[in-house]
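Open question from group meeting: does this chain pack into something compact, or does most of it stay loose? Before anyone orders reagents, we agreed to write out a predicted structure and look at it together. Recording both the input and the output here so the notebook holds the full record.
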Amino acid sequence: MKINKSNVVSVYSGRDGRCCCGCSGIHRHSSTSKNMPSYGVVSDRHVARVCNIMNKHADELEYDNGHVALRLDGRLYIAYLEE
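Structure tokens returned:
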């Protein structure tokens, strides 16, 4: 199942096997995000890029409560979805 970009609040892209705090990757928020933290960085371009990568590998996506993840070539991609 593919990810609908309009349902994505933010994305993460970083090294697989590391924490997702941002020390080994980056978080970017959609401009439509309603609850973005004050320190958040908005980049619709980056959100679209991560969603496109994930959609190309839709059969490998891991779904969990509130997010979708993809492990690919040593990287971890996460799309956080609207509640």
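Observations to bring back to the group:
The longest helix spans residues 44-56.
The CA atoms of residues 35 and 62 lie 24 Å apart.
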